[in-house]
Design a protein that fits this description.
This protein is of the alpha+beta class. Strand 6 and strand 7 form a beta hairpin. The protein folds into two domains: 131 residues, 2-Layer Sandwich (Beta Polymerase, domain 2); 107 residues, no CATH class. It has a five-stranded mixed β-sheet with strand order 1-2-5-4-3.
């Protein structure tokens, strides 16, 4: 998110409880049509895993047309173009910055499956509607791979997602992850070799310490094996 928008608040100005309440409030305005994504979706109250990095206090959501229509009057949403930016809509809800992406996120078209597969997570601060972790991972990979690197915070969020799933005794849907990756992530990749995205995800966690290292390694190995089937470097080498 732009510093122009962040500047109204300091990092971690709000408690995780306050952030979770706002996330629930926004989602509940149109259940299943407004979904939390990004770093907010890996709050400990949601994943059940330990927070691994400093969090920012802004929240990112995706919304279909119905969700955005409902959100505008309730939260006083504004298009980002009003402040010289593009691609999202925003408001301050209880002073917390809320950004809502409608049809795409920086060129990535949001598939309809994101809404039909929405997850409802009950927390002590209300129900939070989430995009599937597979989409959240794909978006995190795209942020770095489209620039030829991987961000440390995204690696740590990947580890938290993997740890949370293990605690619930479930696993990532690898076919679904591949679907979201092929929807505009792999095509924009500027990394140097086959499935380097997953190798770098794991590397970022190793740099940070031992917490969730094993969970991240297992997740990265499973994802890497699946994604190698369609990785553009693998396909190019075959040709």
């Amino acid at each position: 998110m732009s510093h122009k928008l962040r500047s109204r608040k300091a990092l971690n100005r709000f408690s995780e409880e306050q952030v979770a309440k706002v996330a629930s409030h926004v989602c509940s305005a149109s259940p299943g049509n407004i979904l939390l994504i990004g770093g907010g979706a890996v709050l400990p109250q949601i994943t059940g895993s330990k927070r691994l990095r400093s969090r920012s206090d802004d929240l990112d959501f995706i919304a279909d047309d119905r969700g955005l229509e409902v959100a505008y009057p309730i939260f006083g949403m504004r298009p980002a173009k009003d402040i010289g930016m593009e691609g999202f809509h925003f408001a301050y809800v209880n002073e917390i910055l809320v950004a809502v992406f409608n049809s795409e996120i920086k060129g990535y078209r949001i598939p309809d499956e994101a809404y039909s597969g929405a997850l409802a997570k009950k927390t002590e601060h209300g129900t939070i509607y989430l995009a599937q972790p597979e989409l959240n991972i794909a978006l995190k990979i795209r942020r770095g791979s489209s620039k030829g690197k991987m961000y440390g915070k995204d690696g740590l969020d990947f580890a938290a997602i993997c740890a949370g799933l293990e605690s619930e005794r479930t696993e990532l849907d690898l076919d679904l992850l591949a679907f979201y990756m092929q929807g505009g992530v792999c095509q924009s990749c500027l990394l140097a070799e086959e499935t380097e995205c997953m190798k770098l995800m794991y590397l970022q966690v190793q740099k940070a310490g031992k917490t969730y290292n094993a969970e991240c390694r297992r997740g990265a190995e499973r994802c890497g094996k699946k994604l190698s089937e369609t990785c553009k470097y693998h396909v190019r080498n075959i040709d």
